[in-house]
TrEMBL record:
Keywords: Carbohydrate metabolism, Lyase
Family matches, as InterPro entries: Etherase_MurQ, MURQ/GCKR, SIS_dom, SIS_dom_sf
GO MF: carbohydrate derivative binding; carbon-oxygen lyase activity; ether hydrolase activity
Gene3D superfamilies per UniProt: 1.10.8.1080, Glucose-6-phosphate isomerase like protein, domain 1 (3.40.50.10490)
Pfam families: GKRP_SIS_N
Broad enzyme group: lyase
EC number: 4.2.1.126
Gene of this entry: murQ
Protein name: N-acetylmuramic acid 6-phosphate etherase
Amino acid sequence: MEGEHTVNTESASSRYRDLDTWEPGEVLEALIDRQLAAVAAVRAARPALEAAALAVAGRLAQGGRLAYAGAGTSGRIAVQDGAELVPTYGWPQERLLYLLAGGREALFQAVEGAEDDEAAGRAAAAGLTPADVLVGVAASGRTPYTVAAVREARSRGALTVGVANNPGTPLLEAAEHAVFLDTGPEVIAGSTRLAAGTAQKVALNLLSTLAMVRLGRVYGNRMVEVEMTNKKLWGRGVRMLRELTGAGQAEARQALEQAQGRVSLAVLLLKGVGLEEARRRLGEAGSLRGALEAGRGE
């Protein structure tokens, strides 16, 4: 595949010219190879991802909102990343925004002309402030809606991150932090839901996860702010508490119930801290580790 990564995501690769005549196993092998290459492209972007994630965490630590902008496949991948932060890390729903070309309807079907609407992109980002972060995602790097949203957000002082699969594109130039994912042409020309989409999903996963870790929403490698929305997660919460504190089954469950399902709060209760004092410490420290260290210093 020499030279393929120098052309853009819309290019047709000669390697797959007769794809429709291949054996099914050969088609799958080609698709798998390109998926692996997509992950390799994310690894190459690690320095940019690290710088972006640290900047995102720094800005969000000041109380701002995290917003995602995109159209079509890229927009849906962006929304998925943001939506998972609430149950996984307890990120406040009110501090999440989705700037999706075509609105909610575009999550389920294509909305004609939505990605070309620059005015809508600008309007969607007009409410962002210097306390906020906007992550714009576009495989082509040229989607008018997304580029306009990022430009508008940056003009208003928001921190901006651009994720694109073509180099030197308007989105990467518009964003303060540019993340280029060099996935090259797709097995099926122009179908960026394939390698480009995989690279975007992995990159956003890394970006938001590192930001959440830096924001103290993880203790060790435990999701101590996970939302308890079902029996499986309540069971996981009890196990976490037992492993983190040495408490028995019944004691851990009682603490978790008293903490209304918040593991970080339950840890402090099991350490002998009163409910209101535990809430105060978590609020002031911003993380379980910080709250525990503050208790040791008192």
